[in-house]
Amino acid sequence: MREDSNTRRVIPVMVPMPANRPYSYAVPDGMRVEPGSILRVPLGPREVAGVAWDGDGEPVESRKLREIAQVFECPPLQAQMRRFIEWVAAYTLSPPGLVARMALRAPAAFDPEPLVEGLRLTAIRPDRMTAARERVLHYAADGQAWTRSGLAHAAGVSSTVVDGLLAQGVFERVELPPQPLVPLPDTEFSRPEFMPDQKLAAERLREKAGANAFSVTLLDGVTGSGKTEVYFEAVAAALDRGKQVLILLPEIALTQAFLDRFHDRFGAKPAEWHSDLAPRKRERVWRQVAEGQVRVVAGARSALFLPFRDLGLIVVDEEHDPAYKQEDRVFYNARDMSVVRGRLGNFPVVLASATPSLESRVNADQGRYERIVLSARFADAAMPELRAIDMRRSPPERGGFLSPVLIEAIGRTIERREQALLFLNRRGYAPLTLCRVCGHRFQCPNCSSWLVEHRFRRQLLCHHCGHNEPSPEACPECGTLDHLVPCGPGVERIAEEVDRHFPEARTIVLSSDLMGVKRLRLELEAIAAGEADIVVGTQLVAKGHNFPSMTLVGVVDADLGLANGDPRAAERTFQLLSQVTGRAGRSGKKSTGLLQTYQPEHPVMRALISGDAETFYEREIAERERAGLPPFGRLASIIVSAATRQEAEGYARALRRAAPAATEIDIFGPAEAPLALVAGRHRFRLLVQGTRRADIQTYFKRLLERAEKPRGSVRVQVDIDPQSFL
Ligand code: ADP
Ligand code: ZN
């Protein structure tokens, strides 16, 4: 290390580690670094990518001070994005380094994309002309540089023809910038004819998205009302302002049809961003988003951390969807953080849903968000007629799960050559296997949960930790053969029942564990093209798909989501079942939704059947307000886990004892978590509830400061605005 190190400039660098603040590094002489620059820095024995942060680095003893190794040739992370990272970190109580890490998830993209070799016409003419050469020259005559294969392809000749011309000097080699990933969207490409209420909504959204100002608009429209078409106008308005646009979708890997619709409107596809993207593609998206070549990204929640150069609009489609909550490392809700991003960047945000979250509804009711309502389906498509099947009065036959009423409806549907969807949010064959002789139940050795039988895979599988074992023939407890019975249904078992009743029908099971994303996409396309009569599926069939000939949706167990202690159970069930039944009748045919339930009088069932969502929302909102639950109060969970139950409980109790006194905040627990054991770790939960004004973050900071540091195998995870209470 150089002696004059105390005269070198020292800057803070955010490294992708669970560090609470940036680390200090020295800038070598002659190196140009600005806040946001993406850097290669030494960290312990390794080198990592970090981001130059703002202000001055904290003083460090000169012999400990290390130098920045390299500034990547990459657009710097914008100030807006750096503030966003700090905000998310402070709000979720996560180390900012871990949040920054989410913005740096494409290491190979920090170096520029390599130039591509291209060919350009010179003044030299070929020694002799052939028809093939003439065609090549015809295409190359536009003065543009071409790639060798691109030119050969355009001219319809083999590339040896091009090589021949190159050898004669007819072409010269030039370096071309890398191809854009997607062409530029054209906002005038194909504008739809809007119906009167759509037109009003579209105009209002255009106005909002055309302004350089923060606003949040809730686009609340029934399934099939044309929300997508309408918010595309907001996208167009932002693009016309020269801005980049982010569209968040809960299940982008499976909603390829969305990309086609975008193409129909804008003449080009958006760039996609999700975890199933090939690494090379991810890197190119990251880079071209940073450089501004990519104008529109359609992505999963993590797209919120892409390094946009000039973001001017975020649309969150299906804003109520629980998939927007990340529950891993940094616990954040991408819907809420989109609003924060819009506020920090001073640009509009659009939240779209047929069944808005209660949080967004209340924000709209209280005037913080503007609400635009589309209350009818597009064209003559009617909403499906929904009915409850009272399972107490029309029970399934012994060993079955489908009421005769539902079976009859399926029969009539497939006779008309239309499609039926049976929805059950349970993967596998049966959620529990039991020995009829000794009562033994198959449980996961690492988790407090039953093993789910997956008959296609001949396995018992734990849905929490992935533990699996071959399907047994004998009971491990009493050794009896052939007396194991599956209890309750999963989709595979429903498909088996359907097959018994309709052996001639083409039945397909769709469930994420049965096939990879590619195969799922193909299956979804095949279903949309009518290549199945009966579809049995988990929630992945519920999201955003358009199945034109689907006219019956049967919900196998409408009560399933109501039983747990989650404060959002009713809301969630209402949203999910509205969405599932909303798959029916989207192309104008008369359609039906049937809900198998043991509690047809439950407010959720009544709201679904009457179509009176308003009353349901009012009641739920009143209920939340009375209980001081979100959005009228604030919640946060602390999950303490450890290798032994004793350690977990001991530390959870210590945390409780360390809780500071606060007037607007209560702390409850610890209690053993409903999922008491996951992947071999014992879990205890504490719940913190505060008023709307309560400063939960400061409370937590004080709490964690006062408590002794966790030792041994103990881990503490804070979840602000928890969505899961398991
Ligand atoms: P939502 O997102 O509200 O469920 P979509 O935007 O998917 O509704 O619209 C439902 C269907 O109606 C789609 O096939 C869409 O292309 C069509 N549609 C909606 N509005 C129009 C319009 N104004 N012109 C043509 N087609 C439309
Ligand atoms: Zn397990």
TrEMBL record:
Helicase C-terminal domain location: 406-627
Record has Hydrolase as a keyword: yes
Residues engaged in binding Zn(2+) 1: 435, 438, 475, 478
Matching PROSITE patterns: HELICASE_ATP_BIND_1 (PS51192), HELICASE_CTER (PS51194)
InterPro entries hit by this protein: DEAD/DEAH_box_helicase_dom (IPR011545), Helicase_ATP-bd (IPR014001), Helicase_C-like (IPR001650), P-loop_NTPase (IPR027417), PriA (IPR005259), PriA_3primeBD (IPR041222), PriA_3primeBD_sf (IPR042115), PriA_C (IPR041236)
Gene Ontology BP term (one): DNA replication initiation
Single GO MF annotation: DNA binding
Uppermost EC category: isomerase
Catalysed reactions, semicolon-separated: Couples ATP hydrolysis with the unwinding of duplex DNA by translocating in the 3'-5' direction; ATP + H2O = ADP + phosphate + H(+)
E.C. designation(s): 5.6.2.4
Protein's UniProt keywords contain Transcription regulation: no
Keyword terms, alphabetized: ATP-binding, DNA replication, DNA-binding, Helicase, Hydrolase, Isomerase, Metal-binding, Nucleotide-binding, Primosome, Zinc
Entry cofactors: Zn(2+)
Residues where Zn(2+) 2 binds: 444, 447, 462, 465
Residues annotated as domain Helicase ATP-binding: 208-374
One GO CC term, this protein: primosome complex
Note accompanying the cofactor annotation: Binds 2 zinc ions per subunit.
SUPFAM superfamilies: P-loop containing nucleoside triphosphate hydrolases (SSF52540)
Job of this protein: Initiates the restart of stalled replication forks, which reloads the replicative helicase on sites other than the origin of replication. Recognizes and binds to abandoned replication forks and remodels them to uncover a helicase loading site. Promotes assembly of the primosome at these replication forks.
Family: Belongs to the helicase family. PriA subfamily.
Subunit structure of this chain's protein: Component of the replication restart primosome.
Name this polypeptide is given: Replication restart protein PriA
Gene: priA
